Amino acid sequence: MEESTLTLPNENWPSIEAGWVWLCGAGPGDPGLMTLHAVNALRQADVIVYDALVAPEILDWARPEAEKIYAGKRGGKPSAKQVDISLTLVDLAQQGKRVLRLKGGDPFVFGRGGEEAQTLIQHGVPVRIVPGISAGIGGLAYAGIPVTHRDVNQAVTFVTGHDQTGEATKTLDWDALSRSSGVLVIYMGMKHAPSIRAGLMGAGRAADEPVAIVSQATTPNQKVLETTLGQMLDDIAKTEMGPPAIICVGRAVLMRQVLDWQALMRGEQPRNLDPLGRGKPAEVRD
User: Fold this and answer.
1) Is 255 a catalytic residue?
2) Contact 189, 195 (CB under 8 A)
3) Each residue of 11-45: pLDDT tens digit?
4) Which of 38, 39, 138, 217 has the least C-beta neighbours within 10 A?
């Protein structure tokens, strides 16, 4: 493959210094959702330590001579241990390398970026943090689902589907979450979808509450399942939805009926211009 001709708009960009680690988010999948700072880092790094969810096209923007080290972790598959990844970053930096740690989404949103940065700093390694677009926001937006909408919710809660061991988390207060947040965005929840459903319905969320599951968000393989809390397990099985996926619970899911912009680009018409049942077009409000 030919080297990418992607260029940055000007020359006033920070440089990775020898012995530094840049901890960068690669966004939810679509290479176009990378930040310019992350692209700048790719063009300078001596070594790139990257995760499973980083698109191969993104790595094509690296310097041809850059070393690439895969450090992906996927549930249910052999994966590098977090402590080993963190200490590898320390070792590379202490060798005087210019190191880019590239993580899917945003490294500080259920991405263990905080753990890695903490280890680096504890070992005296200087760090620069470059945020990325989180899948729980950007991935849902690509599916036509706004995580906030004035007619739906005044709060949104981001939840992880498992704890440090990979098992269903036992520390979440489903009653409190159900009462306080109209929209829940659940990362890494597919494996434990039965316990998530049971927790929410046990806390009083209705069986007919809208649910969307977005798999491989923002990529050409993106799949979206629109279902309900009561029906979600059967529909997941029927459609063979699998990780990586984001689960969104709440009436914001209904907005996809009018905001599925990818369908509109294909020439399809909105399924419902008034999915919230307001009875008339929304007025422009200050």
Assistant:
1) no
2) no
3) 678 999 999 999 999 999 999 999 999 999 999 99
4) 39
